[in-house]
Design goal:
Order of helices and strands: HEEEEEEHEEEEE
Structural class: alpha+beta
Helix content: 10-25%
Strand order of the largest sheet: 6-5-4-3-2-1-11-10-9-8-7
Radius of gyration: 16 Å
Strand content: over 45%
Largest sheet: 11 strands, antiparallel
Low-confidence stretches: 1-15
Mean pLDDT: 85
Distance between the termini: 37 Å
Number of helices: 2
Shape: globular
C-alpha cells in the first residue's frame, strides 16, 4: 500500500505544477493600476487555475469551461459556445501539454529568441464580450507561460506575469 501511495504521489507531482503570478488590472478611467499576487496551478491535460488577492480573484480553465471571478462577480463561459475562448483553450492546452502552437485565422504567433508571442483575435466578433483579444508569451526553451494579457474594451486589460 505504501508503494502504491508513493507511485500515485509521484504521478500527481509530475502532472501538477505551480508558479507565482503577478496580476495587473488596468482600467482607463482609473489612474492607478491594481496589482495583486497569487499562484498559477497547472494540471495536465487541460486544467489551469490562476488565483490572486488571497483567492478573491480567480481564472479557472477546467476542460472547456472557463470561470473568472473578479471583484466578487463570477463570469462563466464554455469554449464550445464562445469562439474566442475556443481558440484560447486550444492554444493553452497545447502549451500545457508542450505541443506545437496551433495555426488558424484567429492566431498570430511570432518567435523572438526563446519567447513565442501568440496573439488571439477572433475573426467573428461577438457583442457583450468580456475580452476582445488575448496575448500569450511562452518561453519556448522552458515550455512555460511567461505572460497572459487579456484585452478588454477600449484600453482596459488584465495582465498576468508568471515567475
Amino acid at each position: 500500500m505504501k508503494k502504491l501511495l508513493t507511485i500515485l504521489f509521484c504521478m500527481l507531482a509530475m502532472t501538477v505544477s505551480a508558479q507565482t503570478v503577478t496580476k495587473t488590472s488596468h482600467k482607463k478611467a482609473v489612474k492607478t493600476d491594481v496589482v495583486t499576487t497569487g499562484t498559477l496551478t497547472i494540471r495536465k491535460p487541460d486544467y489551469i487555475s490562476i488565483s490572486t488577492d488571497g483567492g478573491k480573484d480567480q481564472l479557472i480553465m477546467d476542460g472547456t469551461r472557463f470561470t473568472m471571478t473578479m471583484g466578487g462577480r463570477q463570469h462563466v463561459t464554455d469554449s464550445k459556445k464562445n469562439p474566442l475562448f475556443a481558440t484560447f483553450h486550444t492554444v493553452l492546452k497545447a502549451v500545457i501539454n508542450q505541443q506545437a502552437i496551433p495555426q488558424g485565422d484567429d492566431i498570430t504567433a511570432t518567435t523572438k529568441g526563446n519567447a513565442t508571442t501568440v496573439t488571439i483575435v477572433p475573426t467573428e466578433k461577438k457583442k457583450r464580450q468580456l475580452f476582445t483579444s488575448f496575448v500569450l508569451t511562452v518561453d519556448t526553451k522552458a515550455k512555460t507561460l511567461r505572460t497572459l494579457r487579456m484585452n478588454g474594451r477600449g484600453e482596459d486589460y488584465t495582465e498576468y506575469v508568471f515567475k
